[in-house]
Amino acid sequence: xxxxxxxxxxxxxxxxxxxxxxxxxxxxxxxxxxxxxxxxxxxxxxxxxxxxxxxxxxxxxxxxxxxxxxxxxxxxxxxxxxxxxxxxxxxxxxxxxxxxxxxxxxxxxxxxxxxxxxxxxxxxxxxxxxxxxxxxxxxxxxxxxxxxxxxxxxxxxxxxxxxxxxxxxxxxxxxxxxxxxxxxxxxxxxxxxxxxxxxxxxxxxxxxxxxxxxxxxxxxxxxxxxxxxxxxxxxxxxxxxxxxxxxxxxxxxxxxxxxxxxxxxxxxxxxxxxxxxxxxxxxxxxxxxxxxxxxxxxxxxxxxxxxxxxxxxxxxxxxxxxxxxxxxxxxxxxxxxxxxxxxxxxxxxxxxxxxxxxxxxxxxxxxxxxxxxxxxx
Length: 377
Hints:
Residues 1-37 have low confidence and may be disordered. The protein is mainly α and 377 residues long. It has two domains: 34-252, no CATH class; 275-371, no CATH class. A hairpin with a 5-residue loop joins strand 2 (93-94) and strand 3. The chain is 42% helix and 5% strand. The protein is built from 14 helices and five strands. The strands form two sheets. It has a three-stranded mixed β-sheet. A two-stranded antiparallel ribbon has the order 4-5.
């Protein structure tokens, strides 16, 4: 079983400058959102080139130092007998029964990283710390397969059976005390294998005070304590499985960059016109609160939405798990309706409006995650 990551992005409550939270207000006129990296700005010589022809490598590339840092982290954690392989592929993942970690190819070239940001809106591994976050999760899969932990009854009792169907679509319970939170979207709740991998990642993170963080979440804490016992027991053992067979190596991806991203596009999202009234409720109330001194500082609602698309999409994904591409389609629809209805707001109340807008989008996203549609029918 391949265990790919969903788009992704951004771990336990992130620091204030991480993508998972709304950042401090920015200058709407000078700060582009997703539009700032629109497709017409992407060089055709990049989009029309086959991915296999970029001659991408970990060694000598932008990933070399962070991989070496991760190897040192493993050694400092006492994990010396198990040495995973690393290779570039189409996404994060570890194939079932293997000890090789696949890393998205776009992290091996800054030009491709920019394409990823422009075309999908999220880079899973936007900096070294974020890459390490994903590596720790994937290492959890490696440990599970290498030592066949999933065959133990106590592992199954805590995490569930590995035979449970693995699907990309799953429903999670936000802030469940039964699971740790490391990657966004409540990823530990996707499958028992990911539950273990997330638990391992939290345990492995340097400086993680998980005993305090999860002291009031008994089930999650029990999993972490189990992880510590298991790792103390196996870290000096030779692994049972050492296969490093590589699946979907970047050298075998024949698609052009444009073809690779076109396959994943989501069409526009339509919402009932009745939501126009809700949008008015977000932007219009502050008009009456604006003093005479602010009368000339009225901005179009769409001019607020588009520069903040990336932050809003990150925040929605962080707390709900709804895919970035779908959130961008939703934001496009909301911005279009705001333009058609000529909505505006006082610039002095931008922060309040952003809070209302984020809550509105999150509510729609939760409807989609739990009911399969933005509007319950």
